[in-house]
Amino acid sequence: MRKLLLSLLGLGVAAACARAPAPCSVAFTVRPDDRGASVTAAIEGGPTTAWVGFGVGPGAAPGLVDQIGAIAGFDADGNELSLQPISRGGYSIETNGNPWQLTYHLDLRPSSDQGSFYRSSTRGSDYLVLVGSDAWARFHSDPGAMAMPPEARADGPVANATVRFQQSPESPDWRVVSTAWEEAPNTFAMRRHPVGSVFAVGPFEVIDQAVGSGLQIARHKDWDILPSRVDTLLGELLLSHQEMLGSANDHQALVLLSPMPDTITTQGGLRTAGMVRDQTLVVYAVKAASLPPDHSGIVEAMAVFLGHELFHLWVPSGVQVTRELSWLSEGWAMHMGRRAAVASGWVDKEDGTRRLNNSYRRYLNIGGYRAGSLPAASVGHEAQRSVLYLRGELVFRLLEQEWNRSNPDRSFERSLWEALTAAYDGIEPLDSVAIRAVLADLTDPTTVRRYVEGEAPLTPDTLGLAGR
Ligand SMILES: [Zn+2]
Fold first, then answer.
1. 274 C-alpha to ligand 1 centroid (Å)
2. How far is ligand 1, taken at its centre, from the CA of residue 308, in Å?
3. How far is the CA of 281 from the centre of ligand 1 (A)?
4. 269 and 390 share a domain?
5. Are strands 128-131 and 198-202 parallel, antiparallel or unpaired?
6. How far is the CA of 187 from the centre of ligand 1 (A)?
7. How far, in Å, CA of 235 to CA of 215, rounded?
8. What digits encode the pLDDT tens for the residues 59-99?
9. Confidence check: pLDDT of 213 > 70
10. 316 falls within a domain
11. How far apart are CA 104 and CA 407, in angstroms?
């Protein structure tokens, strides 16, 4: 009887392992090459049939998942395992539950119609930015995740992971930078799937920022915008956010400064792109070659842009909101970016107001009066987004003014941040109902109905821009 019970128990455990997410240990090894990178993943643990999927993170080119090729699985003796394509970027592999290896190749060359930012095309000043959501295979214990499109595929349970880089002897000045813990030279360890991680490989110079504590800056050697002051600028902007909001999540943040891929140029002025994953901000920028690196217009534009991007270390990293609230995360980032640029003295106050006036005119030009409800508009057409973000910024200015009238001694930014962190449980992104309650509590329900829900137009008068 005891024996039977034991074996029944054993059966039960085996069934539970197969069904429940079976976390495995994954050791990725990356070899950068002139097209992207070859990746080997050594897997221990997990079910007898492994379900392997690739994903596409937000902001990445949707076709990126199709640029992953040469996918194969091997057992410990080097024998090839049977691999079946199941769906787009999804495979099943018979592993018998033994340790095994997955190999694949990431082709990160930008194609003509999409400027993939992850790699530039010039040899010598090359770089490789590996974003966890796009670069690392995900391992699942059931086929459910394979039915999801790559954009919506879950991370996959992983007990622990390492990522090791094998540097090419041809690029001796390349180094690997990441916020992940470097447990040995070029080897990084994580307790979960590295889906949220970013690794940059290339001729990066790392500057430890003393002004804004916890901020590390990695600057590509071809970065040519405010080259001698960009670290001070970033530090002061971060400090300004910290003063307005309190610290983000207490771990350190990394800013990667990279030139734009060669396929992307600018006709005049400045072109920028930014992306936040976990505690890493990836910044790409190119300026018109005719402009000096310290041109005043570029200084101001960079201050507002970097202030905006750094704010994303708070939203959505510290507090997450649902997709229809993109007006809030983007509008607030625009508001805070401008506030930080002015507060740290990189943009003077008059100029900040002039720029806001320009934003308001642009808002009207692109159909702002018709934008209506902010939450409703953000689930609408993609073209509505820029209207939405501009309106978002204008609404934050307005809410701040209302707040200041009755609370002259307390910062609106800090009070809003504290109210949001109190409402956020760290798991479920805040939705429109929650945000409505927070904003109505800080100002009043009428203000929220009028300006957030779009029942009243935004006029220069209500924005305090009249007469300028
Ligand atoms: Zn943004």
1. 7
2. 6
3. 11
4. no
5. antiparallel
6. 31
7. 7
8. 787 788 998 999 999 999 999 999 999 999 999 999 988 89
9. no
10. no
11. 58
SS3 call for 245? helix
**φ and ψ of 109, to 5 deg:** -70, 135
Residue from 395, 410, 384 nearest 451 by CA: 395
The Cα diameter of the chain in Å comes to: 90
Same domain, 109 and 231: no
Q: Do residue 232 and residue 255 come from a single domain?
A: yes
Domain that residue 275 falls in: 214-293
The CA 330 to ligand 1 mean position distance, Å, reads 5
Residues whose CB is less than 8 angstroms from the CB of residue 28 and which lie 6 or more positions away in sequence, other chains included: 39, 40, 41, 136, 161, 162, 163, 164, 194
Is residue 372 within 8 A of residue 313, CB to CB? The reply is: no
Distance (Å) from CA 312 to ligand 1 centroid: 7
Distance 303 CA to ligand 1 centre (A): 14
**Residue partners of 7: CB distance under 8 A and separation at least 6:** none
Distance 97 CA to ligand 1 centre (A): 43
- 130 with 240, same domain: the answer is no
* Whether pLDDT at 441 is above 90: yes
Cα 162 to averaged position of ligand 1 atoms, centre (Å): 30
How much distance in Å is there from the Cα of 186 to the middle of ligand 1? 31
Question: Which residue has better confidence, 294 or 423?
Answer: 423
Percent of the chain with pLDDT over 70: 86
Residue 262 lies in a domain: yes
Do 220 and 367 belong to one domain? no
Residues 392-420: tens digit of each pLDDT: 888 898 999 999 999 999 999 999 999 99
pLDDT tens sequence across 85-135: 999 999 999 998 889 999 999 988 776 555 667 776 555 688 889 999 899
d(CA 455, ligand 1 centre) in Å: 25
Are 97 and 164 contained in the same domain?
yes
- 204 CA distance to ligand 1 middle (Å): 24
Model confidence at 221: pLDDT above 60: yes
Domain final residue pick, 175, 202, 229: 202
Per-residue pLDDT tens over the stretch 333-369: 999 999 999 999 999 988 888 888 888 888 887 777 6
Q: Is 31 exposed, middle or buried (0-12, 13-18, 19+ CB in 10 A)?
A: middle
Q: Mean pLDDT across the chain, nearest whole number?
A: 84
| 309 alpha carbon – ligand 1 mean position (Å) | 6
Q: Which residues contact 137 (CB under 8 A, 6 or more apart)?
A: 39, 41, 52, 53, 54, 102, 104
Cα–ligand 1 centroid distance for 375 (angstroms) = 17
